[in-house]
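Re: that backbone. Tokens:
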């Protein structure tokens, strides 16, 4: 039996996933205010955060206007990403407030549609924005921020080293053969440098315990990594050979000496990217380096920053639910000014709480996980309470 064209089209339509009319209508309604919010909040953020500083650099430091425009455009994605949660709460608050003031909420409830069902479109829309925020913050924002920083450095600080670091530690662990033939994992080398100017390590001290019963201490004025030979070049130093009883067995001075050792200390000192210039993968790599360096303070700070990076996209879900819950109650009017004012208060409260929990995480008062996620959990709890109250 052959199917007609109309039958075939009808069959295809039945196979397509259907979005309920109410959900489609509300998602379309949310799109306009959300785009308006992105433009509003990102323009305010980039103006206050970057434009004034760039104008000052153009006027006082001779920064070329074309370079200032380039840096401005490179920094724009960061503020767009920060505007996503802000635009989410503004959009849901405006749309649901307008529906409430127009008695559309009352009409839907009279048809048997619960408050919880009404916020489903906001939840779907916020999940889409969450995925978009995560993609933007992982792929575009870190590289754009890094390029903006490099552009400024090349233009304003050409004579200065691109990065500096102090007190660089690097412990190296390995297996050392014991007299009985067994191999134990122990500290084989400990590298320390007082400072790094971008090319040379200064005030270098290396404790070498890679051979059982033989210890040597290498002290040099400076050291640099030779990428061609894949070794360290030490300059103007002394090698102290230490006997098993702790006395000096031999002292050797040198003008230049090579040392076969990984370039990990260079990675630790030369990690130029700030946290805003790293994606999550790069942040985990930096965390591994900080653990090797033994810098506990930076380890904890990096752990907190990673959790904040993971939690930030899901703020869109929290803001969407909070905005919908606030807007779904009885409203006298659906003015944009009222919605904007409430949105600013909600956003300020969230970021203030995020700042406080982040500081508590770095002080190890709470765990890094709670430092990143606690504002989301509290915001979600507030949204649930508001929805329960509105449903009564």
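Recovered sequence:
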């Amino acid at each position: 039996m052959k199917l007609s064209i109309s039958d075939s089209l009808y069959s295809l339509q039945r196979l397509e996933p259907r979005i309920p009319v109410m959900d489609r209508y509300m998602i379309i309604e949310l799109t306009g205010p959300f785009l308006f919010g992105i433009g509003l909040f990102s323009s305010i953020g980039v103006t206050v955060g970057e434009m004034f500083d760039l104008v000052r650099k153009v006027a006082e430091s001779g920064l070329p206007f074309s370079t200032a425009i380039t840096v401005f455009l490179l920094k724009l994605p960061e503020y767009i990403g920060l505007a996503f949660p802000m635009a989410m709460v503004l959009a849901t608050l405006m749309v649901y407030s307008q529906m409430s003031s127009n008695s559309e909420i009352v009409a839907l409830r009279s048809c048997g549609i619960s408050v919880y069902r009404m916020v489903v479109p906001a939840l779907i829309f916020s999940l889409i924005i969450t995925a978009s925020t995560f993609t933007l913050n992982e792929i575009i924002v870190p590289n754009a921020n890094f390029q903006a920083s490099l552009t400024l450095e090349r233009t304003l600080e050409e004579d200065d080293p691109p990065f500096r670091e102090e007190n660089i530690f690097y412990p190296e662990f390995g297996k050392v053969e014991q007299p009985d033939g067994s191999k134990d994992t122990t500290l084989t080398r400990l590298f320390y440098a007082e400072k790094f100017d971008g090319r040379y390590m200064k005030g270098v001290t290396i404790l070498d315990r890679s051979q059982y019963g033989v210890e040597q201490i290498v002290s040099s004025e400076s050291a640099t990594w030779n990428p061609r030979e894949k070794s360290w070049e030490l300059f103007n130093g002394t090698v102290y050979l230490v006997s098993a009883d702790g006395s000096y067995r031999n002292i050797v001075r040198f003008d230049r000496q090579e040392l076969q050792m990984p370039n990990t200390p260079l990675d630790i000192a030369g990690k130029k990217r700030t946290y805003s210039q790293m994606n999550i993968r790069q942040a985990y790599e930096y965390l591994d380096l900080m653990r090797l360096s033994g810098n506990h303070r930076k380890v904890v700070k990096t752990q907190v920053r990673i959790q904040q990076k993971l939690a930030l996209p899901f703020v869109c879900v929290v803001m969407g639910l909070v905005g919908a819950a606030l807007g779904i109650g009885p409203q006298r009017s659906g003015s944009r000014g009222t919605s904007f004012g409430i949105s600013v208060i909600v956003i300020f409260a969230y970021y203030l709480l995020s700042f406080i929990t982040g500081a508590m995480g770095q002080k190890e008062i709470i765990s890094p996980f709670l430092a990143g996620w606690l504002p989301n959990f509290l915001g979600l709890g507030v949204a649930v309470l508001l929805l329960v109250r509105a449903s009564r």
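Confidence is low (pLDDT under 50) at residues 1-6, 8-13, 158-162. Residues 57 and 63 are 6 Å apart (CA to CA).
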